[in-house]
């Protein structure tokens, strides 16, 4: 995957500012393999993976003409992510540059964090920490679901690793389930997930 135009690094960026709400984990638009380390396992077609009803009803059917931020801001179930992007100073990064692949947590995923954790992260003094968590959800390039393989590791914009697990048609990223895949934007793709990914 290409690693050019990575403004997220300067902010310890997170989750592709506000357009993280849609997407697909695919490298179809890039050829550089530096960002992903595939295993020798066979590719599983994500088109057969179950899609949760909440993902299907997010209003993400016609998204390719909008950037990642615009798509995220238009989805009520992504309002917490949008607020986090603004608080971290990363919202503007999702409007240009890329392409990026974003694994976007739903509001319910943020609600599942320990009590008080989100409020604490949204404080101005924790801006850098929040940005670091958000950038952990962003991978350079447009990675479609069909490009993912079981056991594969993909590298985030900050150089950290995410583990892909595919079992029985269900795709998981570090244990978070993809509930809607391959939501295209003008500058990338979004895969909606049901948990917030926390860097180790």
Describe what is shown at a glance:
It is built from 6 helices and 8 strands.
Question: How would you characterize the overall build of this protein?
Answer:
- This protein is α+β, with helices and mostly antiparallel strands.
- It has a single domain, classed as FAS1 domain, CATH 2.30.180.
- The chain contains 6 helices and 8 strands; from the N terminus they run βαααβαααββββββ.
- Helix 3 crosses helix 6.
- The longest helix is centred in the middle third of the chain and has 10 residues, at 79-88.
- The protein is globular, with a radius of gyration of 15 Å.
- This is Fasciclin domain-containing protein.
- It holds the Pfam family Fasciclin.
Topology:
Elements: E1 36-37, H1 53-56, H2 68-73, H3 79-88, E2 100-105, H4 107-111, H5 117-121, H6 127-135, E3 138-140, E4 153-155, E5 161-167, E6 170-173, E7 176-185, E8 188-193
Parallel strand pairs: 2-8
Antiparallel strand pairs: 1-4, 2-3, 4-5, 5-6, 6-7, 7-8
Helix pairs in contact: 3-6
């Amino acid at each position: 995957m290409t690693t050019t135009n990575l403004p997220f690094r300067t902010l310890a960026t997170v989750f592709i500012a506000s357009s993280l709400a849609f997407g697909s984990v695919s490298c179809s638009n890039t050829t550089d393999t530096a960002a992903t380390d595939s295993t020798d396992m066979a590719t599983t077609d994500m088109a057969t993976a179950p899609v949760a009803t909440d993902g299907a009803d997010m209003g993400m059917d016609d998204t390719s003409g909008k950037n990642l931020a615009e798509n995220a801001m238009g989805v009520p179930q992504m309002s917490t992510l949008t607020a986090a992007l603004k608080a971290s100073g990363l919202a503007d990064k999702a409007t240009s540059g890329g392409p990026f692949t974003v694994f976007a947590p739903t509001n319910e995923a943020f609600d599942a964090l320990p009590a008080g954790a989100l409020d604490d992260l949204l404080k101005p003094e924790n801006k850098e920490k929040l940005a670091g968590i958000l950038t952990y959800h962003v991978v350079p390039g447009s990675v479609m679901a069909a490009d993912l393989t079981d056991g594969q590791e993909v590298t985030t914009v900050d150089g950290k690793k995410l583990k892909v697990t595919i079992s029985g048609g269900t795709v998981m990223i570090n244990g978070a389930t993809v509930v809607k895949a391959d939501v295209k934007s003008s500058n990338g793709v979004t895969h909606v997930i049901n948990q917030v990914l926390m860097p180790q």
